[in-house]
């Protein structure tokens, strides 16, 4: 553990950058629903539902609730198993969520379950990065946590990019979500290769 922490300290700016990138690309993306919604409608998701608006609302609600509920169980996992295990579990959850969302056109149920799981996985990816603030002591820990909050809020831009690509380059929803699988794969690799077994203490 000591060697793992020493390695992180030596590369603390790189580790912090990776942690912020993970948060930006995962933790708060479900709140970019306003940009994703017109893409879903355009591609015919829930097209044959009697109450299409209600179905879309259900999908977003599941994502938001999943995001809020994630912190307690994943925080407990972080305390008991550490950042590495938490990151690995979170990456698997996000991979599954994106795979389900990629099939939203074929099955609206996949969107509801997938979006709920995507919301749940987001904070689970962010949590293993928060302890990195202790790498900076009193000279940067507050700044790092502020950047984490900004990265979470900025994550809503992800689906804005999705909407832009769909509108101007005819990128389909399935293609976007399939490409986005790169994110949980990178989180998995980072968790295995970089995140320590135990959190860094102040």
Summed up:
The protein has helices at 2-10, 12-26, 33-42, 52-69, 71-102, 108-130, 141-154, 157-169, 173-179, 182-193.
Task: Name its key features.
202 residues, mainly alpha, 76% helix
**What percentage of residues falls in helices of 4 or more residues?**
over 70%
Number of helices: 10
User: Secondary-structure element order, as H and E?
Assistant: HHHHHHHHHH
- How many runs of DSSP E, i.e. beta strands? 0
For this structure, the quaternary state is single chain
The biggest beta sheet reads:
none
**Mean pLDDT, all residues:** 94
Spatial shape: elongated
Low-confidence spans:
none
- Radius of gyration over C-alpha positions, nearest whole angstrom: 18 Å
What is the CA–CA distance across the termini?
15 Å
Please describe what this structure looks like.
This protein has 202 residues and is an all-alpha fold. It has helices at 2-10, 12-26, 33-42, 52-69, 71-102, 108-130, 141-154, 157-169, 173-179, 182-193. The longest helix is centred in the middle third of the chain and has 32 residues, at 71-102.
